[in-house]
C-alpha cells in the first residue's frame, strides 16, 4: 500500500519579515511598523555656489534635527525604453516633413544603440521611518519572539497600528518640512504603492503591474451622508405632496411642478440679490 503524500505546509511567507500592509504602513512579524516615503532627487553639481552652500546648510540642519533613526534606500532598476522607441517610430511614420523624418530616424537609432551599449538605470529614493516593537512595552509575546520558532505579535494589530500612528506621523511631518527646505518633494507611499514596491523587489524579473485591490484601495468617490439625508428628505416631501394632491383629485403634472420649483428658486435668488445691493 502506497504511503499518502504529506501536504506541504511551509510557505514563502514564513521567510518574510512582513506580516501585513495596512493603513499605508508596513507591519512586521515581530510587531515593528515602518512608514515609507518617496522623495525626489537634487542634482547638486548643477547648482550655483551659493545654492550649494544653502543646500549643505539645510542638509546639516536636517541631520542635526533628527532625534530618531531613519533609513535612506536608493533603488536602481533597469529602465525599459521600448515604449519610448515605439512612440518615436509612430511619430516618425506620421511625419510628412522629410528633413524631420531623417532627424527622428537618426535620433531613434542613436537611443537604441546607446541602450545596447550601456545600461539605462532608473533610480528611486525612499526614506523609511521605523517604529520598534520595544516601544510598545515588554510583554510575554515580545520575549517569546526572541526565541526561535513561530513568531507572534506582542499585542493586537489594531493596538500596534494605533501606537505606531501616534509615534510615526509627527516624525513624518517633521521630515517633510526639512526636505522641503532642501527643495525635495516627499510623499508617503500608500498601501497600493507599498504592495507594488515589495512585489517588484521580490520579483525583479517580472514587469507585471498589480491591479488595484478593493481590499486595500478605498473607492475614489464617496457620498456625503449629510447631503444624502437632505436629498432623501426632499424626495419624501415631494412624494407626500404628490400623494395628497392625487387624493384631492387634482392631477399632478411633473413638468409644471419642476417649473414651479425653478421659478421659486429664481425668485429667492432675486430677493437675495436685491438685499445685497441695498
Structural account:
This protein is an alpha+beta fold and 278 residues long. It folds into two domains: 14-76 and 124-228, no CATH class; 80-119. The chain is built from eight helices and six strands. It has helices at 49-65, 82-94, 98-117, 140-145, 157-181, 191-202, 225-247, 254-277; strands spanning 18-22, 25-28, 33-39, 71-78, 121-131, 186-188. Strands 1, 2, 3, 4, 5 and 6 form a six-stranded antiparallel β-sheet that branches. Strand 1 (18-22) and strand 2 form a beta hairpin. Helix 2 (82-94) packs antiparallel against helix 3 (98-117). The longest helix is centred in the middle third of the chain and has 25 residues, at 157-181.
- Give me the strand/helix succession: EEEHEHHEHHEHHH
Give the beta-strand count. 6
Rg over C-alpha atoms, rounded to the nearest angstrom: 31 Å
> What summary fits the major beta sheet?
6 strands, antiparallel
Q: Provide mean pLDDT, rounded.
A: 76
Question: Can you lay out the helices and strands and say which pair or pack?
Answer:
Blueprint: E1 18-22, E2 25-28, E3 33-39, H1 49-65, E4 71-78, H2 82-94, H3 98-117, E5 121-131, H4 140-145, H5 157-181, E6 186-188, H6 191-202, H7 225-247, H8 254-277
Antiparallel strand pairs: 1-2, 2-3, 3-5, 3-6, 4-5
Helix pairs in contact: 1-5, 2-3
Amino acid at each position: 500500500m502506497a504511503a499518502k503524500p504529506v501536504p506541504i505546509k511551509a510557505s514563502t511567507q514564513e521567510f518574510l519579515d512582513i506580516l501585513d500592509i495596512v493603513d499605508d504602513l508596513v507591519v512586521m512579524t515581530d510587531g515593528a511598523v515602518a512608514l515609507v516615503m518617496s522623495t525626489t532627487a537634487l542634482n547638486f553639481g548643477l547648482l550655483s555656489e551659493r545654492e550649494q552652500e544653502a543646500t549643505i546648510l539645510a542638509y546639516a540642519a536636517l541631520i542635526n534635527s533628527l532625534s530618531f533613526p531613519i533609513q535612506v534606500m536608493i533603488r536602481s532598476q533597469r529602465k525599459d525604453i521600448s515604449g519610448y522607441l515605439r512612440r518615436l517610430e509612430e511619430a516618425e511614420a506620421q511625419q510628412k516633413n522629410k528633413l524631420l523624418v531623417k532627424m527622428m530616424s537618426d535620433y531613434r537609432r542613436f537611443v537604441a544603440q546607446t541602450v545596447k551599449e550601456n545600461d539605462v538605470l532608473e533610480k528611486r529614493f525612499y526614506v523609511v521611518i521605523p517604529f520598534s516593537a520595544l516601544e510598545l512595552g515588554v510583554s510575554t509575546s515580545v520575549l517569546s519572539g526572541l526565541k526561535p520558532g513561530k513568531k507572534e505579535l506582542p499585542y493586537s494589530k489594531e493596538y500596534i497600528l494605533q501606537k505606531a500612528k501616534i509615534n510615526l506621523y509627527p516624525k513624518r511631518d517633521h521630515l517633510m518640512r526639512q526636505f522641503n527646505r532642501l527643495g525635495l518633494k516627499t510623499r508617503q507611499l500608500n498601501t497600493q504603492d507599498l504592495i507594488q514596491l515589495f512585489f517588484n523587489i521580490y520579483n525583479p524579473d517580472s514587469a507585471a503591474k498589480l491591479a488595484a485591490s478593493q481590499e486595500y484601495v478605498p473607492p475614489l468617490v464617496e457620498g456625503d451622508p449629510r447631503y444624502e439625508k437632505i436629498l432623501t428628505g426632499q424626495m419624501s416631501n415631494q412624494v407626500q405632496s404628490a400623494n395628497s394632491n392625487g387624493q384631492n383629485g387634482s392631477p399632478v403634472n411633473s413638468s409644471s411642478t419642476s417649473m414651479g420649483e425653478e421659478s421659486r428658486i429664481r425668485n429667492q435668488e432675486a430677493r437675495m440679490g436685491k438685499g445685497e445691493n441695498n
